[in-house]
Amino acid sequence: MTTTTTTTVTITPPLLQQQAPALQLSFDPRIQNLTKHGFLFGKKLAASMSPLLHDVVYQGLGLNWGQLRLDSDDMDLFLNLVQDPKFYGASVTMPNKVAIIPHLDYLTPECRDVGACNTLFLRDDPNTPGGRLLCGANTDVIGVRESFVQNVPNADVYENRPALVVGGGGAARSAVYALHKYLQATKIYLVNRDPSEVEAVMKECKERGYGDKLVYVESVEQAERLEGPGAIVACIPDFAPVMESEKTVRKIIEVMLGKDHKGAMLEMCYNPSPFTALGAIAEKEGWQVILGTEAMIWQGIEQDKYWTGLDASELPVAQVKEAIAARLAELSNA
């Protein structure tokens, strides 16, 4: 495999604030040489594989584009930078996924219903010659959907059956929506160590019209009485349970995995490794385990569909998978 050299640049807010009024990115000569540039906009971005993923796509297409890390939560700064005519779009991550929504002109149905934006793309403004609309999408949902569709040969394994989501954060919300809208879950069990987070998820989903299927599983005894799931999406870090609430969550998951029906589990955690303790338990119980890198890859491919206007079949998906696998191997051997 050919090693990919990315053109990403880490940008710090003080320097950007000096340049933003003139919208000049000339502080790094590599940016001058890009035909178009985008951003990865959020905090704690050092470990993100997003720039690598997109650079592999652009190199495969022969595009002189690049995604720049913008480690910031300064929304005014970001909204100034996106006015650059060479800007094509952005990956939006925490803590900006919700904060950016009021500044957007259009939201896709997934973005609106989940209440979080991880992708900013541009469209022409029909009312302003030369103007551009800032549009928001949530491709995390598509990442969850495609992880199952692309990797599970028989959809009967998970369709028209209950599903289980472990966690209570943004990834869990995207998983709930994907299971509801695309994967035909009859019910969606929620398991999490923090009841208040589960209550917030249920409240938001009900307000947006898809919360009736949600069932909060609070105890091992309750889990034992429930019909087994066909799809599980685990959205929690790969830490050994310490607190009693964490131990209860682990036991509930083990009960679900031990039921007669064996389905597929998407383990969203892939940092520092996609091979997690939960994944090992699921495999031992006879479940198919889908690595979290699959969700990351497919949400990124969906982003590039928005930005390039191409279909997934026209994008170098195989090269992306090779590059991500190589990077994970490097990290595991470091």
UniProtKB/TrEMBL annotation:
CDD domains: NAD_bind_Shikimate_DH
Protein origin, superkingdom: Eukaryota
Domain Shikimate dehydrogenase substrate binding N-terminal: from-to ranges: 40-120
InterPro entries associated with the record: Aminoacid_DH-like_N_sf, NAD(P)-bd_dom_sf, Shikimate_DH-bd_N, Shikimate_DH_fam
PANTHER family attached to this UniProt entry: BIFUNCTIONAL 3-DEHYDROQUINATE DEHYDRATASE_SHIKIMATE DEHYDROGENASE, CHLOROPLASTIC, SHIKIMATE DEHYDROGENASE
Name of this protein: Quinate dehydrogenase
Organismal lineage: Eukaryota, Fungi, Dikarya, Ascomycota, Pezizomycotina
